Amino acid sequence: MEIILAIPFGLVIGVVVATVGGGGAILALPVLVYVLGEGVSPASTASLIVVALGASVGAGSQALHGQLCWRVAATFSVPAAAGAYLGTLASGSVSGRTLILAFVPVMLIAAVVTYRRGEAAAEEDESADCPRPGLVPASSAGLAVGALTGFFGVGGGFLIVPALTVALALPLRRAIATSLAIITLTGLAALISHLTNGAEPDWPLTLVLCGCAAVGALAGSAVGRRLPARTLARAFGVVVALVALFLLVDVLLLGGPPVG
Question: CA-CA distances (angstroms) from residue 96 to 4, 88, 244, 251?
């Protein structure tokens, strides 16, 4: 039954991550925990696998259309990978309930920042060349986002897109494309840390989600190129905020996620 349920959810995760440059993990983690019955620890590992694959497919599609800023992705990803490793080590000493409660305010801040970027995004020159941010701001942003990626066990796109647009001045569409490449690299780094520390996801379920997320990512990339930038920003903010509120209500009022 779980395998059948995984198919539509995998497609949705792929569509979301490729359309708005992130957010797949904030859907994948609740789906794995609340719908498919996985514990928080194996679910966080599985979500990294699913989102990294979906993001890699989306990044490839966006690169073919000239939207990906490779220099920014490389400068951001190396310190982000180091941060992801450190964040993963720190997460081992925190309970699942505490992890989710800490996750919620981070998500809400990212939702508000991205939603408010909608107005500015509508006025951006999407044909402009990729900006060339300095090494220090790009590396600092990468390190901070990577640490949160590893700590929470997520792909990080819900933080990467705001960081790229606000801190590094990328136009929204280029930020989305570049975010997908960064998610792939930082997600793989965090995944390696999870696996070397003994994490064991449900592999059959994870592989089904991966296959469906890859298909969804191809569709999501096509959709994202057609939607107005303002719509993309606002949709991203709304999705993140709704998931954050659901997690908060569940932990505080409904007993929280299953453990294990």
Answer: 26, 13, 15, 10
Q: pTM of the entire structure?
A: 0.79
Q: Tell me if 183 sits within 8 A of 157, measured CB to CB.
A: yes
pLDDT tens-digit map of 20-68: 777 677 778 778 887 887 877 788 788 888 888 888 898 888 888 888 8
Rounded CA gap, 175 and 165, in Å? Answer: 6
Helix 70-91 crosses helix 172-196 at what angle (to 10 degrees)? 40
- For tokens 């975010």, name the residue: 179
Please, what's the largest Cα pairwise distance for the chain?
Answer: 50
Amino acid at residue number 63: A
- Per residue in 152-161, pLDDT (tens digit) is 756 567 778 8
Structure tokens at 117: 């970027």
